[in-house]
Amino acid sequence: MISIPKGTKDILPKEVYKWQALEELIREICGNYGFSEIRTPIFEHSELFERGIGDGSDIVQKEMYSFEIAGRRLSLKPEGTAGVVRSFIENKLYADPLPAKYYYITPCFRYERMQKGRQRQFYQFGVEIFGSEDMLADAEVIAIGYDLLTRLGLKGFKLHINSIGCPKCREVYRKKLMDYLRPHYDQLSEAGKLRFETNPMRIFDSKDPAEKAIVKDAPRMTEYLCEECTISFSDLQAKLAALEIPFELDRDIVRGLDYYTKTAFEFISKDLGAQSTVCGGGRYDHLIEQLGGPDIPGVGFGLGMERLLLIAEAQGVNFPDKHSVDVFIAAIGEEAESEALKLGKRLRKAGFSVTTDCIRRGLKAQLRHADRIDASYSVLIGQDEIDKGVFTLRDMSNSTQIEVAPEDLELYLKR
Ligand code: ATP
Ligand code: MG
Question: Cys-Cys crosslink for 161: which of 265, 345, 362, 367, Cβ 3.0 to 4.6 Å?
Fold first, then answer.
């Protein structure tokens, strides 16, 4: 017996309806906002993620599923944005009317330590707006996340926002932060030391208690924002207020990826335990250019769909289960079987969900099966029915049976 790889999960038929309902809602909301779906490959050249996410990030340092084939270094996508940006540049989508608004639903792969809310293959829903510098775009992507959580009926989640500045003000801040951290350098973890060298601000992302204590009194980016970033940040807050989306300022949000500028935000839920972030995003004004494209700003988010479903489950959200069988056709005998084939074809064409036994069991066994799969009706066709030129229709909810003329059958079926 070969078991499932650690950190992956089957989505079984009995729970897949939740995923389908979630995906349907995502597509509906993205449609409401005029976003188009984009699908990019599961794997890309490793270099795309190294440059896009950043060499110093945890993801690139230790979480990527990378492999070499025919001398090419490839990686399974650990997140959605880099591939979308690559495609935007490669297909010259920037020649289309801007801003471009995209969404995706994709599996992602990260080799991580497993915990609740952390898998090695997980699904992300993400949105991106390319080509707007304005906080209207930031507010719009946040509104999509907020709409999704709200329309699912989730309660008690919080939106945390921060500004992590632009390269100009971040440089000034970076020096101040390094000055603060330098006396503590020896107490930093190996990862912390690396962050100190590459992107010291990411130390705020640390879950190490010693590092948390060290950064408690460290200077924060928000104290060093330049005028432009200060204006943007208050502009974003005004737009969220206009949309009546409640938020909290959280100066500790820095986001795990290196390419963010200005806006950083997270949707957080207490129902998730330690991995409390269900959705994280922000602005990345230099990513497209950094990956070889034109100087076009971007903003977006990535949302963990397993985590979203964990919250929904904890809160008892009901998803509509559309998978039910309308009609089970039970046929006995060769002639009846061919009638059953024709009837199945006819009812499916009319939009009913129809199933049959397929293994030639006896009538009793077939009806028991119809009951166990929760079919609404059974249609019985045996030699009797063939001789009389009728179908026997059985209402499975109350086990009552009537004979109906074959051409009238649809009139008796409630969907
Ligand atoms: P965390 O610190 O919680 O690991 P992150 O900063 O690494 O999050 P992002 O790269 O921003 O996460 O990904 C966006 C979202 O994808 C997360 O908020 C989370 O919901 C989901 N996510 C990230 N990693 C995993 C994982 N290993 N398993 C399941 N979901 C994940
Ligand atoms: Mg992570």
Answer: 265
What's the pTM? 0.92
Nearest protein Cα to ligand 1, atom 27: 118
- What are the structural domains of the chain? 13-166+226-314 (3.30.930.10), 327-413 (3.40.50.800)
What's the gap in Å between 277 CA and the centre of ligand 2? 10
Query: What is the CB < 6 Å shell around ligand 1?
Result: 79, 110, 112, 117-119, 122, 124, 256, 275, 277-280, 302-304, 306-307
Taking only the tens place, the pLDDT of each residue in 252-307 is: 898 756 568 999 999 999 988 888 999 999 999 999 999 999 999 999 999 999 99
Gap between the Cα atoms of 237 and 129, Å rounded: 19
Closest CA to 37 of 22, 51, 47, 23: 23
Q: Is residue 281 helix, strand or coil? A: strand
pLDDT, tens only, 141-194? 999 999 999 999 999 999 999 999 998 898 899 999 999 999 999 999 988 898
CA angle 352, 356, 389 (to 5 degrees): 80
